[in-house]
Amino acid sequence: MTEQDNTNAENVQEQVRQAVAAGENITREVEQVAREALQTGQLEFARMQRIIESIGRGASAGASEQPDEARSRVNEAFEGLQNAMLHTFESARLATKEQAARAEKFYEQDLKTRLSELRQMESAMLDSLAAAAKSGSDAGTAALDDLVKHARRTGTRLGDEVEHSMQKLAASLPAALKETALAGLGAAREVSARAAEVASGVLSSVAEQLHTRDAGKDDKKDGSDDSQH
């Protein structure tokens, strides 16, 4: 990362922190900051991830200034980020579609890379926010961590749009590129959902075992009381 990139990331983080701490029009303010930061001629995946992490750090820091409202403020910031990401995804999708329409075989690998990046935008967003959530242990980072975990289980507006749009885009692509466009769509969400189901099953099993154990203790206690009488 260059010094300029560091400066830009710090500026984004501070702008988001101020917006979230102020608590007025958080979604709109964060969306504006994010769109300006993400605006570029081409999708630069690594740069996008750095910006998202900076937004996450700023949102959690700003939310921590109002601990009682940390969760709601982080949620509002996330909605603003999603709005900006939807705009970024759509711009990148259209650019990729145009490139695919006129590309020769020489550009096939480049197109595959772009399609793969488009497909992974939701996971990249959540991974970057998860990294930001590890930067502290205050109310804001806790709220951000909870938000990311919930989003992995239930999905996001961005993820829904990516899946829908990539399926439409794949229909217009040459056969050699269709598999790249569609590979793994929805898989991460399914894995998260299965993990949640497994965790729920484990917790239910533990609860049942504890209940059975406690019931056994009560039976023994009752038996002991009866023998004393």
From TrEMBL:
Q: Which InterPro entries match?
A: DUF6781
Q: Where is this region: Disordered?
A: 202-229
Biased-composition ranges, Basic and acidic residues, are 210-229
**A Pfam family recorded for this sequence:** DUF6781
What name does UniProt use for this protein? Answer: ElaB/YqjD/DUF883 family membrane-anchored ribosome-binding protein
Which source organism? Methylohalomonas lacus
